[in-house]
Amino acid sequence: MSARATTRPGGRSARVQQSVHQAVRDLEAEVGRDALTVPLIAARAGVTPSTVYRRWGDLRELLSDVAVERLRPDAPPADHGSLRADLEAWTVQFAEEMSSTAGRTYIRDALLGDPGQGNAGRCSDYAAEQLKAIGVRAAGRGEAVPELETLLDVVVAPLMYRILFRPSELSQAYAGRLVAAALGRAGSPSDT
Amino acid sequence: MSARATTRPGGRSARVQQSVHQAVRDLEAEVGRDALTVPLIAARAGVTPSTVYRRWGDLRELLSDVAVERLRPDAPPADHGSLRADLEAWTVQFAEEMSSTAGRTYIRDALLGDPGQGNAGRCSDYAAEQLKAIGVRAAGRGEAVPELETLLDVVVAPLMYRILFRPSELSQAYAGRLVAAALGRAGSPSDT
């Protein structure tokens, strides 16, 4: 997220962000992505184009912001009773969502309209937060938990690399192998 | 690379590609990236704009093609006498090149103007070819070599993920840890 787009929940700024984001989502569904323009979006959102330019810079940065919001997980990771089961379920779901046509589009949008890499960082933070929640729950059960950075390197990075660069099999079996590799490094954080 | 841009070396098609790519590189240095347009590039390259549109579709796809060419390694990986030394040297160099401002720009360009993901696949193929050459050399020395897919998952993917999503320390020590993790999986390909 660019500094411009920082908001205080409930304030006018947050309301503008919400109505502009909603206008993008609605118009994308109605007229298609290639027909989106800042004046069109502003008119639908009931703001002036200059409000949009002042806040987001340009269309690409706005689309990047909207994409990141869409990538935000809407629930904490499900509890399947063990670290392995939780990680496997999360990994399979993450791979499915991110490798879908919509998921790929949002990831590309997030990366591209984002010179400062803040939005890409938010995408990574979402995954990190979910993995952290899984780890905290597992530690509460007395399980040995890999470092968060290990989970990002060993589970998330290979999925994202394949989604972006190497369209290939992202099966449940592959997700399971990544999780197994990460669990093999639990309890030896000095190794990460 | 889009199907349109496939060329036979030495033919007219290859000459057009070369002069258009050169025009992009020259103009980018002279007028800056944001001022690039297809008519400007075509004029410099001595072709018609319609030649460019026919072949590349639009400016974004052309920039993607140029970016991928720039990411192509210009030499085989250096021989440092052992698998570990070769992998460490390659990994450090790859991290340095890809995380530079120019490297990041080329990666983003390659990903962006590439609806079919062919150019992103070429970026990955370049890394895969270099790692394969290192592995063939190591096998010739009698060393146990990890599977190529393991090297991509354990070494390349974490670097690329951090470069794109999680700007963070990409030190020589970090590269060394990635290589050590990959070497720990040499000779157990069923594990990958």
Largest interface: which pair? A-B, 26 and 26 residues
Number of strands of chain A: 0
CATH-assigned homologous superfamily of the largest domain in chain A: Tetracycline Repressor, domain 2
- End-to-end separation of chain A: 29 Å
Helix content of chain A: 55-70%
The CATH topology of the largest domain in chain A is given as: Tetracycline Repressor, domain 2
- Structural shape of chain A: elongated
* Tally of individual domains of chain A: 2
Instruction: Return residue spans of chain A where pLDDT drops below 50 for at least 5 consecutive residues.
Output: 1-5, 188-192
Domain HTH tetR-type (chains A, B): 14-74
Organism (chains A, B): Streptomyces albospinus
DNA-binding region (chains A, B): 37-56
Keywords (chains A, B): DNA-binding, Transcription, Transcription regulation
Summarize this, please?
The structure is a homodimer of 192-residue chains. Chain A is mainly alpha-helical and 192 residues long.
